[in-house]
Amino acid sequence: MSGTLVLVRHGQSDWNLKNLFTGWRDPDLTELGVEEAKAGGKALAEYGIKFDIAFTSSLVRAQRTCQFVLDAVDQSSLETIRDQALNERDYGDLSGLNKDDARAKWGEEQVHIWRRSYDVPPPGGESLRDTGARVWPYYLTDILPRVLSGQKVLIAAHGNSLRSLVMVLDKLTKEQILKLNLATGVPMVYKLKADSTVASKEVLGDMSGAH
Ligand SMILES: O=C(O)[C@@H](CO)OP(=O)(O)O
Questions:
Q1: Which residue ranges make up each domain of the chain?
Q2: Ligand 1: does its nearest atom lie under 6 Å from the Cβ of 91?
Q3: Is 118 helix (H, G, I), strand (E, B) or coil?
Q4: What is the pLDDT of residues 26-55, one digit of tens each?
Q5: pLDDT classification of 1: cutoffs 50, 70, 90
Q6: Nearest ligand 1 atom, CA 23
Q7: pLDDT tens-place string over residues 48-90
Q8: What is the role of this chain (predicted)?
């Protein structure tokens, strides 16, 4: 019997609002981010899911999003495992820089490549491939076995750590992942087959405005 995997990107953070590269830095959610996290939780409550366990990163914006989601589905005390394997992609030397300033300095195209390409790391940081190289093994050893045993599992994490998972789950190419942006606080509900491939995917909200 296979289970359900729900992925949700944290709500807007202070540094998302200020347009700064964040990576492993640890800003909190903004008020809007709190509302987005609650809205994601409400969508999951309406969907009718009850989780068996939750996973989140070692960063506060994902942890608080996780808690808002659990509160919304009336599971405030659910076991929650925090692990830095699920942290955002490390932005290296770009961390803390303004994204528009970076575009002015290095050019629009270079910055887009650093932000969205599969295998070009930002200076001193991780490419999406590098991020996947720590997210994916953790998923395989700690998360997937639970889903395959029939559990319903929540992962509240980050734009790029989740993109690295979605790339494999949705079988996206390097070209397709370049265009994929995940919206904050919009849950993606995956049902997996016994062979760990995707039986169905539902997006509970609007991904179209994501950037
Ligand atoms: O700054 C970051 O860590 C990420 C997520 O907010 O930004 P980007 O969208 O550029 O990958």
A1: 17-36+51-156+174-192
A2: yes
A3: coil
A4: 999 999 999 999 999 999 999 999 999 999
A5: low
A6: 3
A7: 999 999 999 999 999 999 999 999 999 999 999 999 999 999 9
A8: Catalyzes the interconversion of 2-phosphoglycerate and 3-phosphoglycerate.
Q: Pairing relation of β-strands 152-157 and 80-82? A: unpaired
10 in contact with ligand 1, CB cutoff 6 A: no
Burial of 7 (0-12, 13-18, 19+ CB in 10 A): buried
d(CA 22, ligand 1 centre) in Å? 6
- ipTM score here? 0.94
Ligand 1 pocket residue status of 115, Cβ below 6 Å:
yes
At residue 132, what is the residue type? G
Index of the ligand 1 atom closest to the CA of residue 16: 6
* Average pLDDT across the chain, whole number: 96
Nearest CA to ligand 1 atom 7: 21
Q: How far is CA 43 from CA 33, 68, 178, 186, in A?
A: 15, 12, 27, 8
**14 is annotated as contributing to ligand binding:** yes
**Residue 112: active-site member:** no
**pLDDT at site 178:** 87
Give the percent of the chain with pLDDT over 90: 95
Residues found in the chain = 211
* Whether the CB of 23 sits within 6 Å of ligand 1: yes
**Centroid of ligand 1 to alpha carbon of 55 (angstroms):** 20
CATH architecture of 17-36+51-156+174-192: 3-Layer(aba) Sandwich (3.40)
Neighbouring CB atoms inside 10 A of 51's CB total 19
